Amino acid sequence: MLDMDWKITFKTKEASYQLMLISEVEIDESVENLVDTAIITLPEAVMNQVLNFEEKIVRGSEVLIELGYDKNLEKEFVGYVQDIVANDSSLQIVCEDALFLFRVGVKDAEMKPTSSKKIAESIVDQIDKTFKVSCDYDIGFEKFIIHQATGYDVLKKLQEETKANIYFDTDSKVLHIHAPYLEKGGDVVYSMQENIGKSSLDYKRAIDKKVEVTIESIDLKGNVRSYTTGTTGGDKITIKVGAVTESDMKKIAATVLQQNNYDGLDGSIDTWLIPFVKPTYSAHYSDDDYPDKKGIYYVVSTKTTFSNAGGKRVVKFGIKLG
Asked: Would you say which domain of life the source belongs to (predicted)?
């Protein structure tokens, strides 16, 4: 029987502070979302004494969440306190990853020609130069306008128009911009007979789901350009982008098609804190009852909960890698 362990540390410019009790921790991480979040729930009062830590934990405090068993802790979340919310019977400390730092205004600009990487580097240079940009999916823009926007607004627009995976590695201070399923964080092994509590996985075949993708762009002269790929007559997906180059319209279309049309398992599994896993990991999946479903799948998201009831992690699979 393993003993559950945890350590949650907050840090401000003045000092650090460690929580001594919690009711629950919930961590949501995904390469498909701009922001990873953690919600730490505490009882509002202990022994009829209201908890008061406002001077120790404030908006912007750094937070480190470590979880595990038998004093073997893994770094599960690194970020910042976004808000402290009082409910009827509990307190919630709402945390965000490094995107929290980028919810501030940036200069208006008209960048032309430019690219995803140059735009992201411009935002990082204005907000926090200690961050680096890792980009291997550099979509070209004939023109990109920034007007009365925050760093978050700009990154969100980039994500919407390029369909890239854009996310922060807060611990390493890296802003990642990648084509879906390319960035590899590590490997993890799952077996239905050994370390999976339950599964909601369904096998789907690309041949059964016909998809037609159209990318529409408006060039600098105001002309509408379009590019279509996939299966004619299939489910139609139309993406409107800005003044993107024609070659990169095709790149975006291929990305969207890959996200919506592949052979493999679709869904998620429920497991525990061990084995450790993060989005971008390659999950080696097997089921002795269905050996034909064995494969390697890209982990797109994890949802981790930790409380007196135990530690659980929901792991969502993306495309089949092998």
From this structure: Bacteria
Sequence spans of domains, the chain: 4-96, 103-178, 186-204+264-320, 206-260
Both structure tokens of 267? 């869904």
What is the architecture, at CATH level 2, of domain 186-204+264-320? Answer: Roll (2.30)
Sorted by sequence, the CB contacts under 8 Å of residue 141 that are 6+ apart come out as: 111, 112, 113, 114, 115, 116, 119, 242, 243, 244, 245
Q: Is 138 left (phi over 0), alpha (psi -120 to 50) or beta?
A: beta
Helix pair 151-162, 246-260: axis angle to 10 deg:
80
In tens, the pLDDT along 78-129 reads: 999 999 888 777 889 999 999 999 999 999 999 999 999 999 999 999 999 9
pLDDT tens for each residue of 265-284: 889 999 999 999 999 999 99
Distance (Å, rounded) from C-alpha 256 to C-alpha 248?
12
Superfamily of the domain at 103-178:
Baseplate protein-like domains (3.55.50.10)
